[in-house]
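YM 10:42: DUF2490 domain-containing protein sequence, as discussed on the call
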Amino acid sequence: MRKRIVVYILLLVGSLFVTNAQETGEDDFGFWAMYFGTNRVSDAVSIHTEAQFRYYELASNFNQLLLRTGVNYHISDKAVVTLGYGYISTDPTFVEPDGEKNILEHRIYQQFVLRNSLGKFAIGHRYRLEQRFIDNPLSGNDTQHRARYLLRLTYPLSDNWFLTAYDEIFINLQEPVFGQNRLYGAVGYQANKDVSIQLGYLKNHFTGINFDRLQIGITWNTDLRKKDENTE
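YM 10:58: structure's back
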């Protein structure tokens, strides 16, 4: 009789674990579709544009919409500072109960990007501060602050193909201190001087939970500066 009780308890614990994994979507391979743009308007200034569509599963089960823009000031070819704004709509649960409302966030951010190289490797450092104004239907309004650091390595395979990888850590400026960590690797194709495409894999780590994400990213940079007629 005791053995049966132990077996029933183990089965119950196991079923709870499986149910929890399904409810969080941790066992599912998610998908992020992303667009990034830098629109140069002068030698010193450019406009950043960005849109990301994130799903708990491959192209289904909405997780998050992220729209971001910013004004970049180019200190040099290797150093850029940015002041920007982001709008984020998040479905925090894998399951979709009736009447569920998304968490809405307005975000102001400041960042500094520094680029250098080591041999054939291009190295990028991104330092970002964020002020997050969050409207959660369940817990109400909240203001949070966060710091992020991203280290990226890019290696050219040919004139058009390249490999890229980054690691980014998120540090909350309130409890809990650790926010998340993102580890990413991708293969990229430079279609022309303005457009590139990346297909990659992201490991998104939170405290006690990890998500696997397939990513497709398109970067489209434009130059709106007036050309000097004497140089044409």
